[in-house]
Each structure stands twice: as structure tokens, then as C-alpha cells.
Amino acid sequence: MRSRWARASPPTVGWELQLKGAGPTPYSRTADGRAVLRSSIREFVCSEAMHHLGIPTTRALSLVATGDAVVRDMFYDGHPAAEPGAVVCRVAPSFVRFGHFELPAARGDLALLRRLADFTIARDFPHLSGSGETRDGDWFAEVCTRTATMIAGWMRVGFVHGVMNTDNMSILGLTIDYGPYGWIDDYDPDWTPNTTDAQGRRYRFGWQPRIAHWNLGRLAQALAPLFGEVAPLQAGLDAYAAAYGAADRANTAAKLGLPDAREGDVVLMQRLHGLLHEGEVDMTLFFRGLADLDPGAPSLDAVADAFYDPERRAAVQPGFDAWLRDYAARLAEAHEPVAARRDRMHAANPRYVPRNYLAQQVIDRAEAGDASGIAELLDVLRRPYDDQPGREAFAARRPDWARTKPGCSMLSCSS
Hints:
Layout: E1 16-20, H1 37-53, E2 59-72, E3 81-92, H2 98-107, H3 110-124, H4 132-157, E4 159-160, E5 182-183, H5 208-223, H6 231-256, H7 263-278, H8 283-290, H9 310-334, H10 338-348, H11 356-367, H12 372-381
Antiparallel strand pairs: 1-3, 2-3, 4-5
Helix pairs in contact: 1-11, 1-12, 2-3, 2-5, 4-5, 4-6, 5-6, 6-10, 7-9, 11-12
């Protein structure tokens, strides 16, 4: 099945290659420029998984173990240890980020800022016509709408980036820099996978749309010297809000199996999110299982495997019963065949995502000398929306042992 969420690569005249972990560069400050195997596997697996989920992303061309030992203090707690090293070759039409424009702006180097903007537009946005502020405004607006599309994709599948600073935001709207990312197991809008973000939770799952908007505001601030007035930049930020709102409504309709999203459907989804959080319900399993709901006799039996705690399920049962009745009534209004609804939901709600514990199992095997798990996991993740008989273990909810295990619950920027 080809997902409706798959999208073509952005216009480009070529591809850039980057070696991550190959050693110091002129831009690596005092760091050693090396990478450890665990973080390299995580980037390799997740970037490919995101591509097949239909979410704009950089990709991975190769993963090579170096045989060298790399010393890292995984949790910055004063306990460094040697780990196996690796190099990932990652690929994208461009690795230009928002931060690239902030640097010359902060230095007051407007000539360099102008050159960088002209270069980026000419190379990566050749379809833009016009000149001067009209072209620049159209460019910024497209950056904003591409970013909105990317973020909406993250929210649809439960991906949490973990470090959404401006240096980790692609000018092409691609998911970039897979560091301490994570995947939502039990639905929690306040969850962050990043140990260094655990207190403030700035980059929590539910805040990602607003953080992206904030980052675009910083990009607009950096580009402001190129404009005579702020109106084109404000128009771009408004375009982000409109594009994200439209994408979020489309996600709501698709995830619930509706032909379109009405205002009441948005409220229905908001109610569901509250119940999922309160009941400690697995996001991926719930939405996938919801496609099998019998509207004539709605019950939680279709999503029973999505609950982590029987006591919490019992506590939210009345709320879910009421929600399911309202949802079934809405489905009846749509007057669509059950098969059409199921197909729509299966195309939007993946069965397989690179859950944190799955990645950690592969990492543990690779560090012990067995790298075959990488290919096994990737083979499953290349068809995330298809039911794959015999591979049900890759779709199971997070086991109890993974709830607090390093690499499965929280990670650091060196992870």
C-alpha cells in the first residue's frame, strides 16, 4: 500500500552528503567530531522510517562501524565510558538550517546574509519567480508552509524531536538531526525524550507546533534587514498558522476515518486526546485498532491492547464509552462503507513505528556483535502502514522493562 502521506522530494538540482562521526571539521569547535554506534543506529533507522511514513526528512545512505572507541558521558553525570564508534552518511537536497541565517544577521554582516539568501533561493527554490522583496517574501512563506507540513506529520505519528532549536530546523522543512528523539508510547503531550529538557520540557510533544512557529519568528528576525517592512515576514508566519491548521484538520479527519473535519470533529479529537492521556493509552495501537471498531456496537474491545494499566482503563471507561457513542454517531452521519473508513485510517495511522525500545534492542545486539537486527527492523519499517503477518512483535506496546531503561525512556544529546 502506498500511503497518501508520501510526498515528492522538494525541487533540487542535486544531493548533499554529510559524514556524521568521521572526525573534526573546521566547524566542530573543540569536539572530537566522532559518533557512537548507538546514536548512529538511531539516526540511520529513524530517518529511513520517517521517509516511509511519508514525513519530510533527511535520509541515511550508509552506516559503518569504525572499530574505534569513542568516549562519551551519556547522561552528563560524570561517568564517561568508551563505546564503539560509527559513521553515518546522511543525504539531503540541502543541510541549510535557520541558524545559518542567524549568524550573519547577529554579526551585522548584511552582505553575507544577502548572498546566503540568494544562493539558497537559486539552488533550493528555483521555481520561485519574481525578484526583490516579492520573491524573498514568497520564499519565506514557503519555508513556513513546508515547516508546518513537517510538524503536522510529526504530530500525526507521535514523533518527538527532542531538540528543536533553530540550528536543528531545515530551510527545506525536512526533519533533521536525529539526536535525543523519541516516539510517543502512551499518549502524553508533556513528554520529552531529552534528559536535558526534562525540567523545562520546552520541546515536549504537544509544544512542537508552537516551538516551530517561534523558530520561524527567529528566522524572520534574522531576515528582517533584507526587507523594507515586516509585512511579508508576518504574512509568512500567518501562512504557517494557516497551513498547520489545515494539516491538523486533515490529520483529524484521516485518523478518525472521516471524509472531512468539521468543527465538532476537532472537539471530538481533543476529547479523545484527553482520554488517551488520562487512561495511559498507547497512541499508535489505539488509532490503528480504532479502524476495527463496529459503529453498531462501539466498545473498547477493538483497542484493548492499547491500555497499559487496567486500573486506569477502568477509571476512564465511562468517559470512553461516552466518546465512542459520539464517534459512532459521527460515523453514521458520514454514510460511508466500513471498508472505505478502514482504508483511510490505515493510510494515516501506522501499524509500525521505530519505538524507542525496538531501537534499543537493535543497539544492544549490535554492540554485542550482531548487526542483523538493523536490517530486520528496517525491513519492517519500510512498510509501516501494512499489516505484516508474522511481525506482530514489532507492533507491540512498550514492555514494562523499557519504561525506565536508558535509551527507551530518556536520552541525552549524545544518544
